[in-house]
Amino acid sequence: VGCGKTAIVEHMAHVTGRSSAPFLTKVQLGEQTDSKSLLGTYRCTATPGEFVWSPGAVTRAVTAGHWLLLEDVDAAQLDVVAVIASLVEDRVLMVPGTGAVPAHRNFRLFATRRLSAQGTRTSSAGTTSACS
């Protein structure tokens, strides 16, 4: 915790001219973060019964070729890990209802993991647990 993981990515983004949103998107992952919030969802419009797709932060970064920093990836729920896995393995984002979205050639994914100085996972509640 506090060793500069985020700072190094922000510095690289600054050096390459990507220091501000949307060129660098930072997402803090946790127990409350689900894949829908990252991928996007359908939202209703002013017309009754009409819905439009509203892409989430990950979908926007993947399609536009921006950098994405996922912080505390070890705190992510399994559905979020599944989304990230297909992106890392195949550079394809699987979006339910939309299908496979290939990553733009400029897209970059960075992820951090929160550990204490003793090598244990630090939770947001301030307790620690052993890392695997």
Automatic annotation (TrEMBL):
Keywords: ATP-binding, Nucleotide-binding. Pfam families: AAA_5 (PF07728). InterPro entries: ATPase_dyneun-rel_AAA, P-loop_NTPase. One of its GO terms (molecular function) is ATP binding. The keyword Transport does not apply. The keyword Transmembrane does not apply. One of its GO terms (cellular component) is preribosome, large subunit precursor. Residues 2-112 form the ATPase dynein-related AAA domain. GO terms for biological process: ribosomal large subunit assembly; ribosomal large subunit export from nucleus. Gene3D superfamilies: P-loop containing nucleotide triphosphate hydrolases. This is Midasin-like. It comes from Hirondellea gigas.
